[in-house]
Amino acid sequence: MDNFRGQGGIQMLLTAEQEAQHIVSSARTLKMARLKQAKEEAEKDLAHYRSHMETDYQNQISETSGSSGKTVKQLEEETETKIKALTESTSRVSKEIVDMLMKHITTVRT
User: Fold this and answer.
1) Which DSSP string corresponds to the chain?
2) How would DSSP label each residue in 69-98?
């Protein structure tokens, strides 16, 4: 009779072990599914973040290149204004300079 109880106890232990393996296997499967889901969500968030950063970067590039064009135009206008001012100044002073040079060239020191 003790032998029969021993066999029944062993059978109960085997059954309990199989149930435990089944529970552990289910837990692993659920864990893997959650990890996969978390990875997919992280990749989705990363893709969203990258696209947001790329949009910001493109906006900054377009703003700086736009202002660069404005800067070039402004510099060209300033240069043109300075050239006109120098041209007017030299045309006003050129007669005086020619007279001064002629005076020095024609004057002989003795």
Assistant:
1) -HHHHHHHHHHHHHHHHHHHHHHHHHHHHHHHHHHHHHHHHHHHHHHHHHHHHHHHHHHHHHHHHHHHHHHHHHHHHHHHHHHHHHHHHHHHHHHHHHHHHHHHHH----
2) HHHHHHHHHHHHHHHHHHHHHHHHHHHHHH
pTM above 0.85, yes or no: no
Q: Which amino acid type is present at position 26?
A: S
38 burial via Cβ count (<10 Å: 0-12, 13-18, 19+): exposed
φ/ψ (deg, to 5) at 22: -65, -45
- Quote the percentage of the chain above a pLDDT of 90: 53
Query: What does the pLDDT look like over 54-68, one tens digit per residue?
Result: 999 998 887 777 666
CA distances from 41 to 5, 34, 37, 62, 99 (A): 53, 10, 6, 32, 86
